[in-house]
Amino acid sequence: MDKTKVMLILMGIVVILLFLGDFSQYKSSLDLLYITMGMMVVIFGFFVEGEKFNETVTYFVAMSAVNIFQWLIVINILFISQVYLTIQVFIVLAIAPVMTIFLINRLRRSNLKYLGNQQRKNKDLVVADKMNVILTDKTKAIYIFVGIVIMLVCLASFSQSQSPENYLVVPWV
After folding, report:
1. Which chain regions cross the lipid bilayer (predicted)?
2. Which tens digits make up the pLDDT trace of 121-158?
3. Which of 11, 59, 110, 152 has the fewest CB atoms within 10 Å, measured from its CB?
């Protein structure tokens, strides 16, 4: 086995075990997010060979399943559990959106879109070149900046609003 592969898998297992111990003691939902990060490192470790990375359908399915679990944890933390929201918690909660963006970017750049046709046609290359011309570096920077500003405004407005539990009326309680 490759040294990089073994190191990534061991690091992921250590992170999982450390935060699994914390979770068993404190029952914090934030520890579950850290456990999912360890799971992602282990999954990434299985698909690294030397300095190359194999992007397979199995990789994207496994990472997407873990990312969906991360989003469920974030929803649980924000809307169900009684976690006091601070800047540190918001930074930890940014794990799920960042991993979603990372996976979408990897999927967009992978060769998996050519599964039915392993050979790229000339038409595919022309379309890809046109998209590169349209999305220049300046527009990418503007999109990223606008996305970050929107995310920060939404997080700030959420932190300033009242808890959604104040609005829930359950007649049987």
Report:
1. 7-26, 32-50, 57-79, 85-104, 141-159
2. 545 555 555 556 555 566 666 777 787 878 877 776 66
3. 152
110, 81: one domain: yes
**Average of pLDDT values for 63-86?**
84
Comparing 110 with 165, which gets the higher pLDDT? 110
Same domain, 11 and 86: yes
172 shares its domain with 107: no
Which string of b and e fits 49-75 if b means at least 16 CB within 10 Å? eeeeeeeeeebbebbeebbebbeebbe
Mean pLDDT value across residues 16-41: 86
**Is the pLDDT reported for residue 167 higher than 50?**
no
What is the pTM for the complete model shown?
0.62
Coil, strand or helix at 55: coil
Residues 139, 83, single domain; the answer is no
For residue 11 the two structure tokens come to: 């690091």
34, 86: one domain: yes
Q: Is 124 helix (H, G, I), strand (E, B) or coil?
A: helix
Q: Which domain holds residue 94?
A: 3-117
- DSSP-H helix ranges across the chain: 3-26, 29-46, 57-75, 87-93, 95-109, 122-134, 137-160
d(C-alpha 111, C-alpha 53), whole Å: 12
CA 171 to CA 28: how far, in whole Å? 29
